Amino acid sequence: VARTARRLYGFVANARTVAVRVRRSYGRESGIVRPPVDVDRFRPAARREDYFLFVSRLVPYKRADLAVLACSRLGLPLRVVGDGPAGKDVRAMAGPTVEFLGWREDAAIAELNIPTGIPLLHELDDAFAPKVPGGRYLDPEAAIAAAEAVKNQGR
Fold this sequence. Notes:
By secondary structure, the protein is α/β, with parallel strands linked by helices. The protein contains 6 helices and 5 strands. The chain starts with a helix and ends with a helix.
């Protein structure tokens, strides 16, 4: 593989993290071409609605279960956009404050009233890999504590 890598004209990575992996694996530098992101399509909502929003493919490693569990236990409203192999399990643990919107086109997601506050999310590096396996909240108690802090904001 290394011999073949030396014969290539060049490498292109989509992020610094990937460029580091190329250098480490093949001993070659690579250019970086970042993926396009249309940041203008998301705008603050004209009216504020208090709810959490979880947008993701529902696969186990993205830990939608933690967001659903935390919001269900605290009685906080959560909207879940997405579907996937873990969808059935995540729906089974949801309380009455969790609403599943299913899969949506990007344009439909942009039209949602994006909430403010602390999101329940996975922090990704510039190569779109999770910085911390399991996301920001590593266990249900931590997720519940973080959601409780948001619930009490402004009181």
